[in-house]
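yo

u said u wanted the structure for the complex thing, so here. seqs first:
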Amino acid sequence: DAKTTQPPSMDCAEGRAANLPCNHSTISGNEYVYWYRQIHSQGPQYIIHGLKNNETNEMASLIITEDRKSSTLILPHATLRDTAVYYCIVRESLHTGTASKLTFGTGTRLQVTL
Amino acid sequence: EAGVAQSPRYKIIEKRQSVAFWCNPISGHATLYWYQQILGQGPKLLIQFQNNGVVDDSQLPKDRFSAERLKGVDSTLKIQPAKLEDSAVYLCASSFDFGTGGEKLFFGSGTQLSVL
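structre next:
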């Protein structure tokens, strides 16, 4: 069952910020938002995750709305190597003790162009 | 740090044959996952292990697929007999627990299976 909605594709010029949206209107209080990406012919790669607060790491920033019903992944200066499929996933905290699956949808195909 | 190792990288078999995939997770990672990714789709979880016990195998077609994780380290996934619709990339992942309720999965490069 899809818990997230993402646009199927987006384009971004190299050097510009890429803002990838995700809707998760049915998210529950103990569910994290995760982002992974998959470059062609490789396995998915973890990018970032968050619960309520905005998060930033060396790869990206994650902005979660106050009501937690949507989020945006920001790649501040996109490069050609960021061309990939980006997956937004919601998943229960491991602390709930339930075996919640990390379920991938079809993601957003980001094309970074010169 | 060594990543998740998978072999073989590619495999071509005929339908009704058997095939096995091997995965060596990152050292110290207790949780191991097998995913199936059909062309154009996102990865689909087949089975999740915690150490050498199965946590979730609800989407594993148990009439033909089997998996084991001996001694809580390496894992093998087997298909017997294979069908045309099993053509896919089989991904293995192991995970790091942040301790805050979040988890980070590390994926291998996968085994691309073609069933003719």
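The interface with chain B takes residues 30, 32, 34, 36, 41-46, 49, 51, 85, 87, 91, 93-96, 99, 101-107 of chain A (CB under 8 Å). The radius of gyration of chain A is 14 Å.
cya
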